[in-house]
Design goal:
Elements: H1 7-13, E1 16-21, H2 32-40, E2 44-49, E3 69-74, E4 79-88, H3 95-103, E5 107-110, H4 115-130, E6 134-140, H5 156-169, E7 175-180, H6 190-202, E8 206-210, H7 214-224, H8 234-239, E9 244-248, E10 253-257, E11 264-267, H9 269-276, H10 278-283, H11 289-297, H12 304-314
Parallel strand pairs: 1-2, 1-6, 2-5, 6-7
Antiparallel strand pairs: 3-4, 4-5, 7-11, 8-11, 9-10
Helix pairs in contact: 4-5, 5-9
């Protein structure tokens, strides 16, 4: 079922890659180790993510649509270029805004409000328009590897939409899923991640892996002085020798610190879609965010969008 390709084969054949943080918030930071690997193969990298900041930064529920953002330019109807001045209409800066300023070049924002179909259409066009021959979606924390019944799963919506889209795109293009920050979002337990990864490996879906080097550590530390993110900070602390346990999300999530979190595992999205992610299969073919969200309700999932809407009721914007 796997791609029958090895990571080095894919990289030797690639010339330009789109690297996307697929969970919103600071997931774009998780693309940086992969970008440094690809650059060693002479591959030009375009970084990007989703316009969905944590509600502690942007109290309006859900990801932002095009008309809710200032200072962006469309690549197509679903994928936009962001720069150092990109903000929401209420003045919130995205993690992508900070990355654009740090590196002095535009990054991408991917609209998931049109569901999986919108993402597939937009990213397919973006790969054509940018002449990219490789697409890698990076999930920080590993909740993209959830079956859907894990008790700690708290943010399945964005990941399921993007896994479903990557799986669909993989039919005609070279697309990978990268999992960085093993358990660093405090959602899946290490035993749950290992269960999923072992199944993916058995099905031929483990394409390769890559860790944090001292040079990448320096780069990440610099970025983290500007970008607010908890899950993407954990691998940096682990790379500096941190062990034991810590909490994130205002003390609501416990994280086990492990050097495993410094590794990015590259997987076949199709194998993850078919063998692991029931949430991704449920949202397949969705044409809107709410359609995808409702599909996840069918197995009793309470999503990050549901949480933000509940918070808004308690603390009106």
């Amino acid at each position: 079922m796997g791609s029958n390709l090895s990571l080095e084969e894919i990289l030797r054949k690639s010339t330009k890659a789109i690297l996307l943080g697929i969970g919103g918030g600071g997931d774009i930071v998780g693309t940086i180790p992969t970008a440094r690997l690809l650059e060693m193969f002479g591959i030009e990298c375009v970084l990007g993510g989703l316009p969905w900041e944590r509600f502690v930064y942007d109290p309006i529920p859900g990801p932002r649509a095009f008309n809710e953002i200032k200072n962006i330019r469309p690549l197509n109807s679903t994928v936009w270029f962001a720069n150092k001045d990109t903000v929401t209409t209420t003045g919130v800066r995205f993690a992508e805004t900070e990355i654009a300023e740090i590196y002095g070049k535009e990054v991408l924002l991917v609209d998931i409000t049109k569901g999986v179909e919108g993402v597939v259409n937009g990213l397919s066009k973006a790969m054509n328009e940018l002449q990219a021959d490789l697409l890698i979606g990076i999930d920080v924390g590993g909740d993209s590897l959830a079956f859907g019944d894990e008790k700690g799963l708290a943010s399945p919506l964005a990941d399921s939409i993007m896994i479903s889209a990557l799986s669909e795109l993989q039919k005609k293009r070279v697309a990978l899923l990268g999992v960085f920050g093993y358990g660093s979002d405090g959602e899946l337990e290490h035993t749950e991640l290992e269960r999923s990864l072992s199944i993916v490996a058995k099905e031929g879906g483990l394409i390769g892996a890559w860790g944090i080097t001292p040079q990448i550590l320096t780069d990440l530390e610099m970025v983290l002085t500007r970008v607010s993110t908890e899950a993407s900070r954990i691998p940096v602390e682990c790379a500096k020798g941190a062990t034991g346990k810590t909490t994130i999300r205002r003390g609501t999530r416990m994280v086990t610190l492990s050097l495993t979190s410094t590794i990015t595992f590259y997987l076949s999205p199709r194998v993850v879609y078919e063998m692991i992610s029931k949430p991704a299969r449920l949202v397949s073919g969705s044409k809107s965010l709410d359609e995808a969200n409702d599909a996840l309700h069918s197995i009793g999932l309470f999503t990050e969008l549901d949480l933000e809407r509940e918070v808004e009721k308690v603390v009106p914007t």
